[in-house]
Amino acid sequence: MNSLLELEGKAALVAGGGQGMGRAAAILLARAGCRVAVLDVVVERAETVAAELAQLGAESHAIAADVTESQGARDAVSGAVKAFGRLDRLVNIVGMASWGALLELDEATWDADHRLNLKQHFLVGRAAAAQMIEQGEGGSIAMVASVSGLFGAPRHGAYGAAKAGLMALTKTMAEEWYPHGIRVNSVAPGSVRTPRIMAQQASGEAPSESDPDAARWVEMDDIAGALLFLSSGLAKSVTGQTLVVDSGKTALFPFSMS
Ligand SMILES: NC(=O)c1ccc[n+]([C@@H]2O[C@H](COP(=O)([O-])OP(=O)(O)OC[C@H]3O[C@@H](n4cnc5c(N)ncnc54)[C@H](O)[C@@H]3O)[C@@H](O)[C@H]2O)c1
């Protein structure tokens, strides 16, 4: 199976790998034979997951950095290169929604949402691509967008706009770096049962399990599987795309037929 994925021995960096779907992606990449650098702004999270991967028999490394800072983005890539001598795969799941109607949203929250969900992808993606171009053997970048970027996103408009921007950025990166053999794709999840979302549900910040607007929940491993596919040789002709993983929620006809 692993030979089908063509990931054996590849050096991967998972930004936001310290918990949730980032951790799930790091585990799948390690099981597919990658050497995995786990990056997180919370150092204990990165170290815990790196230790978990080592227990699975994978070569792993923990990196602490804030990727919303340009120095942090550079440190992320140089940390992986220091550990493994090269970088072949980037999976970047860092992102989070703030909640609030546009009329009440302050500018600082808007800016923070865009730094976390859009700008950092430009910073980390660019640093990773420069390294891959220097190596001259291509590579792959897979990022996490959201279905909130496909439609209007009431109460999380800044996030939706940033994720829409990320899907556009995915296409531009793919086009600009295609000549270098670097593929760039995104995954747009629907509602995913992650530790953060479950905690937000408990506090009433995020929609509850039974909320029809957030129905058809998907699991973290489903997103990790999509990221693995996009990072693998099975997707060697797939670039500039966003793969929606939402149990079909956005495939529904949006208007009432009755
Ligand atoms: N959970 C959902 O329902 C859902 C739905 C659609 C899209 N998404 C997207 O999926 C992605 C992951 O979501 P999640 O719920 O697994 O997230 P999470 O908050 O559980 O995990 C994100 C990880 O990234 C780390 N991180 C945060 N800021 C960072 C920074 N500046 N630098 C480095 N690391 C940082 C966090 O410490 C955390 O470990 C996000 O991009 C989110 O927008 C989530």
Structural features, described:
The chain is built from eight helices and nine strands. A seven-stranded parallel sheet has the order 3-2-1-4-5-6-9, with helices on both faces. With 258 residues, it is of the alpha/beta class. The protein has a single domain, classed as 3-Layer(aba) Sandwich (Rossmann fold). The longest helix has 29 residues, at 107-135. The structure holds nicotinamide-adenine-dinucleotide (NAD).
**Net shape:** globular
How many beta-strand runs? Answer: 9
β-sheet strand percentage? 15-25%
Topology-level CATH name: Rossmann fold
Mean pLDDT: 95
Q: Work out the helix count.
A: 8
Q: What gyration radius follows from the Cα positions, in whole Å?
A: 18 Å
Structural class: alpha/beta
The CATH homologous superfamily is termed NAD(P)-binding Rossmann-like Domain
**Known CATH architecture:** 3-Layer(aba) Sandwich
**CATH class category:** Alpha Beta
Instruction: Describe the strand arrangement of the main beta sheet, using strand numbers.
Output: 3-2-1-4-5-6-9
Q: What is the H/E order?
A: HEHEHEHEHEHEEHEHE
Instruction: List the uncertain runs.
Output: none
Largest sheet: 7 strands, parallel
Q: What hetero molecules are in the model?
A: nicotinamide-adenine-dinucleotide
Please give the structural blueprint:
Elements: H1 2-5, E1 11-15, H2 20-31, E2 35-40, H3 43-55, E3 60-64, H4 70-84, E4 89-92, H5 107-135, E5 139-144, H6 157-177, E6 182-189, E7 192-193, H7 195-202, E8 218-219, H8 220-231, E9 242-245
Parallel strand pairs: 1-2, 1-4, 2-3, 4-5, 5-6, 6-9, 7-8
Helix pairs in contact: 2-8, 4-5, 5-6
The structure holds nicotinamide-adenine-dinucleotide.
